[in-house]
């Protein structure tokens, strides 16, 4: 087929109503009374939605294969099967009290894109691939995003198969129980590029009234454990200036972390999510407080700077308040930059569709962040209500889901060299 | 005996070595391996020390009676038995991991004063009374200081007899078990004045290098329960300015409470002893924090002012950080002023003995605070190491204990109209 004969696609849109009805249809698998989903990875409910997904893909003419960790790959043939497939997808597993959109949207929007291409009779140059990654959530088996990490070579298949849930069941046993231990070696599936549509799981798009987040990468993360040690003393007999109050030390640390993160804004965030007083009592000045600290930023250098400034603040607080303050970094994950070409493709697709948008980084981890270590990757975000996720009340509008799926479709068309727009 | 014939007493001192040896001797009853005491009220060990105390008092010529709540009264006759006795004392019960001085010093210093008067052949005009109050500590039966409260009319004897410990044993049963349910009606023992020597249980005297605390009264106390409610959100995806972090609200509240207490210094104290994040997680911005607040000051008006200023600060913090802050006062005890004449008598005694001293208030509750509602009362403090009490490591020096007992002796002599100094 010559270039001139290619059909134009600039008016092509996915079917928003059909996408919405598949979201509702699959929400029956693991539905909770509060309107959310409890579809832990490799559970019977996860098996049901996988069966549904395989059947839906096959009905759309896709060829479905399963790898040794249960990840489902649905291939739509292209004109040139020597080209690596252009992939999209996300995950169909959920948190135990999860919502209907986290992961689900990315998979079902990919399915909808395939159906829409079928309806329009469009063939792409490169093949397309739709992926449902096993265990993105990490609620049943740790770590989260384990199948995409294994795909990218971070773990061996055997390492992952041996992981156990709280009941002692291994990943291998759980895969066998639902019939999803496939025969494709992990990592053998060729992928030329990977694009993941996801709800933002944060408040930025909603607050700014924008529809599309053009995701430039995943943040770096540093986790710390800390403690403040002062001296336990009587709340009635110890004058204020003589106290060595560990809680007041923690309070200054938390406010310093906020101040430092704000100074590195708007991207940097710092959170003390856990703070526990040792032997707390209403009438005792706290002598010891343990705390956690989570610092994130898209730039490695900013993580370094926040940590250095915080340690300086801790030194000052400890000296002034006569407290012993310890801060130990227990984990650090470097930022993941997405492929600039893919990011530009996402942005162009949003622009050509006339959708309001902004560049942003992903605050949470996603399979696309793992994929980025091995293949060009990018993400598309759409707003979710109040930024709430990992919650049965998680919500997104039909219009935003459709807009995200349209951006996904047009990004795939660009990357797989579909007909000219 | 004429005024002229009265022996001079300005050189009279208690026997510090004898006082110290009785402290060590009674520390055998309920001794813990770590060098402290476990002598819960009305326990077998409390029965043993009560028996020792009765025998020691009788050996010193005192007449011992026991009231219906087990409080022991040891009377030393005066020349004019129509005068109400001038009393001293404290308590011989301890915390489960208590020290050797809390309460014990006040009782044994009173015994030493009686012995020293005997040695010197001194008779006072008014009789003297040495009291061992039942259950000052409150560790086994609540409330603390129950016998002195009943003496002052705050509870009926039957109310107290019906109180149960954690094992369901009543005060009445516990008294019977050690043979200390006496036949004197509670409150019938006449007391003309009450002076209690005690370790400070705080760091002020030690820090200032002073020997005697001339205690002007007990502080007022206000207890509050509070909560801060914001919005739980993802630590990675929620920009700093959009957060409603309940922990940061608590941090500002704690620092405001410190600032306000300092502004009402040196007397006012404010303590957040308990602070608990609801559903804490390392990567979740805290949505709710519950906390306790303890505010104390010797002046009722200062308690009011601290509360009012704190509520104003809470309003400002809540508005600025978009947090709902609740603060509920759950208990308030008004300050207890001691009798100015008795306080002056304590101060004069310390001055005449050439001891360094300062006026202060009691940060903790004591039997003398209950007595003050019914009879003129005052207290004498001596330093304890590092301000530590309610701990097996509680410590005081022999010299300070002797100095406190000397002040007690001379205060008793002044109040009971002993020989002129």
Automatic annotation (TrEMBL), chains A, B:
Keywords: Hydrolase. It comes from the Bacteria. The keyword Hydrolase applies. InterPro entries: Amidase_Cbmase, Bact_exopeptidase_dim_dom, Peptidase_M20, Peptidase_M20_dimer. Pfam families: M20_dimer (PF07687), Peptidase_M20 (PF01546). The keyword Signal does not apply. One of its GO terms (molecular function) is hydrolase activity. Residues 219-317 form the Peptidase M20 dimerisation domain. Belongs to the peptidase M20 family. This is N-carbamoyl-L-amino-acid hydrolase.
